Amino acid sequence: MIKIAVKQTLGQLKLDVDLMLPMQGITAVFGRSGAGKTSLINVLSGLTRPDDGVIEIGDKTIVDTQRGINLPPEKRQIGYVFQDARLFPHYSVEGNLRYGCVNQSPDNFQHVIDLLGIAHLLKRYPASLSGGEKQRVAIGRALLSNPSMLLMDEPLASLDLPRKQELMPYLEKLAREIKIPIVYVTHSLDEILRLADHMVMINQGKVVISGHINSVWGSPAMRPWLPSKEQSSLLSARVNFQHPDYALTQVMLNHDAYLWVKRLERARGEWVRVRIHSNDVSIVRERPTQTSIRNVLAARIDKLHSVDEEERVEVRLRIGEAQLWANITLWAADELELKVGDQVYAQIKGVSVTQDDLVAL
């Protein structure tokens, strides 16, 4: 695990963070501008020094103020990708990639350029590259430094929409193939949905909530950040089988609960992440016998929260270990006489697999 327990005063911001992060996958750090996201990764990288605290990456201590340990950036084995690519303009792409390259293995170099799709750019210079191409080269340069961790500070923030769409598939591939922890700062919820395995929310220098993306996304702490039409649940599911007659795939939440989604070209047993908007979930007391909705799940009411100004009730449902939120009207909640612990059925009108388009069932 990665242990981060640091305090730092930067002007009006008082960073006070106590975190344990996984050693693999992408951890998204989310929060408003000025919340302390970039300050956190600058402390990790060694660009700034904490007033007090400890940082450990696995069994390696890089900061311990009580013991006088504060490794300089070049000894931390941490790669950093900034908002702007910061390439050397007088070096070719290949020259930029080889700058600071620790592992001179030709196979490793080839693997990185293949991973990022930049082989055709090697002889070009930064001035001739698009924003998305520059960022891919910057990521490649960071990876070739043989880091034990990769930090990415809003790498898509300076790009227009076409360039973001160009770079996103490479980031998704990076998340799957690179076996080091990646700490990814962003204010984009779409990027978090597509990339993150773990999520940290920071506000005014302090951690509001941290954990697996599914649990954080479905937490009460997350819901104020989303308008009601965007509120949703994230669930992990395993591909089970393809429908023999229709372009649909069955994915399993557990042994007793499954969902039909638009056909996925995925192997049986492969994990996928599904997103269900709260406004696409309705609640019934009895299982419907004739309905056009294909996804109906048995559930238990876990939490009820009234939003008085909207005459809306947020209902958290438990389906095995999974949590599913539904937005219903106060009228419906009163008429159904819902209370915590009730056994009900959730009718799900729309399910999407993150990275895929919505399919209504």
Supply database-style keywords.
361 residues; alpha+beta; Rossmann fold; OB fold (Dihydrolipoamide Acetyltransferase, E2P); 2 domains; 6-stranded antiparallel beta sheet; 8 helices; 22 strands; 21% helix; globular; disordered C terminus; cell membrane; Mo/tungstate-bd_C_term_dom; EC 3.6.3.29; ModC_ABC_ATP-bd; hydrolase
Describe this structure in words.
With 361 residues, this protein is α+β, with helices and mostly antiparallel strands. The protein has 8 helices and 22 strands. The strands form 4 sheets. The protein has a 6-stranded mixed β-sheet with strand order 7-8-9-3-10-11, with helices on both faces. A 6-stranded antiparallel β-sheet has the order 14-13-12-15-21-22. Residues 356-361 have low confidence and may be disordered. GO terms for molecular function: ABC-type transporter activity; ATP binding; ATP hydrolysis activity; molybdate ion transmembrane transporter activity. Keywords: ATP-binding, Cell inner membrane, Cell membrane, Hydrolase, Membrane, Molybdenum, Nucleotide-binding, Translocase, Transport.
